Amino acid sequence: MTQTVAPPTRRIHEIDAVRGFALAGILLANIGFFADPGYATGSGAMPITEGPVAALVSTLVLTKFYVIFSFLFGYSFTLQMRSWGDKVKGRMLRRCLGLFALGVAQGFLLWIGDILTLYAALGLILLAMRNVRPRTAVITGSAIIGVLTVVWVALAGLTLLDPAAGTAAAVDHAAVARAETLVTGSPLDFLTYQFETYPTLAAFVWLGQGPMAMALFLFGMAAGKSRLFEERERWAHLVPRVQLVGFGVGLPAAVFFTWSNTASGSWQLVGLAVNDIASLLLSAAYVVTLLQLVRRFPAVGAVLSNPGRVAASNYIGQSVLMCLVFTGYGLALGGKLAPVAVMGVAVLIYAVLAALSAWWLRDHRYGPIEYALRALTNLR
């Protein structure tokens, strides 16, 4: 990657479309936690963990779309740097503060798997590294992923030496039942569940997704400094190769990851190591294929770009609507829907939010959450 001199900042339609696509994948990945509250206890199972629906979600969706979203965070940071100029430090600090506060509120009130607090913390590291060259950012991100992969493989080796370490934990049926009762009980019951579960799960999110997210932040920053989306001719000739490697290698590796989740001990850890690479390859293939599709069929980009333009509002909106369907805030359908029905709810939620996004953007430049973040960021 070669850093280029940037012209004045403009809205990049392709980034909005990819972000809207990533939101759809994140919705599919997250909805299982709402559909079966017992899963979040660490001993239950989502209704989409068995059967063909489970295989498709695990193989094609899980961990792939937060990779894309993290990459876009880093890319968007370069656009903000161009816009903010010498005010980048103060504005980024305030933006991260706003994201952290929003993440904490969502974690306790709506979605225990919220990632915004992690993004806020890693955003401060990205700010500190804002002057590194694209090549250095790519090397650093690659090193993080390499170390993470080695750690998983080493842990897998240790479980082979200690067979007891690979024994699957017994399902705590009482904990699963209590979780479902709280989530589908009254709003106060649901809040009790949130306050009990969120702090522990937040720690798992930070440890489990933090290193990979930081690596993708750096990749995105490198791509943004190189203006990768703005100058399509620089990478268009690589699309067939990206698709060949992404689908040809990443897809079988993702299938292995899905299979490893049904195993125990060392195979699960090997699956995590493989998935670190599979997620990158498959996500890259998704993105270049989507960009080709958007270029050929502009209507696809139009549908996806509206949710992508107001991504923060849609991210919170997804949590609100999932709570209204599955928790005591609304219909309390947690643990009651079949896997296919759960996926149908996800499609309906995305369609509703896409329609609301298009309606809102007729008269507004930003979404409601985006307005609040901009007000704090710019102090006006």
From TrEMBL:
Transmembrane regions listed in the UniProt entry: 20-41, 53-77, 97-126, 138-161, 201-223, 235-257, 277-294, 315-334, 340-361
Pfam families, per database record: DUF418 (PF04235)
Domain of life: Bacteria
Keyword Transmembrane helix attributed: yes
Alphabetical UniProt keywords: Membrane, Transmembrane, Transmembrane helix
Ranges for domain DUF418: 223-379
Protein name: DUF418 domain-containing protein
Gene source species: Nonomuraea mangrovi
